[in-house]
């Protein structure tokens, strides 16, 4: 996840701004909460999940996966345009994937808090808002900016003089990004947010420096190797019975999450944005679910006891499987059609 977020931040040519990233802010502020609420309500209503378990389901499927969504993301650094990034759908999905992986944490922590202290808001609301939502998000963002600026100074100042040094150029940035993640977590911020923001900071420190391409290539290589390994483990889990606890109602929730919840939430989030309907539809549809969903689910189950944990794994596994198959097959033709 850390490597994927770094690679994603290094690819985005468009400088962060309120107007330039308006599609991103809409997806984060409107589409993401609606997706969480929709999946949670379906889990509670159709499957009969308890409130904390249903909220954990919603939080787990919230992130647009930065690893498996490569076909719908922007190209390499410098290949996008400042204003268009090749196409608005690619930019919106890339920037959303970079940020909502970190922003799913508050909702995961909400599910954990309710599982630990009960549903009554007086038991968790104040601390959750101040710490999980405000403090950790702000610290993660600021840490990404500060550590990213420091890391950018270091990596751009280093000039490889030997052939061996040139061949491994970029590894120091990967190591530095892992340090950014670790330091941010130590001071209480969200490490995923810090990593993406740090990568953006590095990308825009010297926009036209050839080192950006080296950074991107080596991070993408590491990311693809890890993705292949994780997908092998996912396939093994499927063969090993991951979906055995899945009920008919759970399957309906999985299908509805991919084909109804995310698309409808995306359309609502982009209402009035001025984008063409084809672009809105593509952005709304390609909310790829993947490795991040397993990470948040495992994190939540490790922090508190949730009822129907096996069923929850099965539902999330089904969502990821359907998303990988459907979005994987349709991504290239649809995005190429939009671009042309």
UniProtKB/TrEMBL annotation:
Pfam families: Na_H_Exchanger. Residues 8-336 form the Cation/H+ exchanger transmembrane domain. GO terms for cellular component: plasma membrane. It is a multi-pass membrane protein. Keywords: Antiport, Ion transport, Membrane, Transmembrane, Transmembrane helix, Transport. The chain crosses the membrane at residues 103-121, 133-158, 178-200, 221-239, 251-270, 282-299, 311-330. One of its GO terms (molecular function) is antiporter activity. InterPro entries: Cation/H_exchanger_TM (IPR006153). It is found in: Cell membrane. One of its GO terms (biological process) is proton transmembrane transport. This is Sodium/hydrogen exchanger.
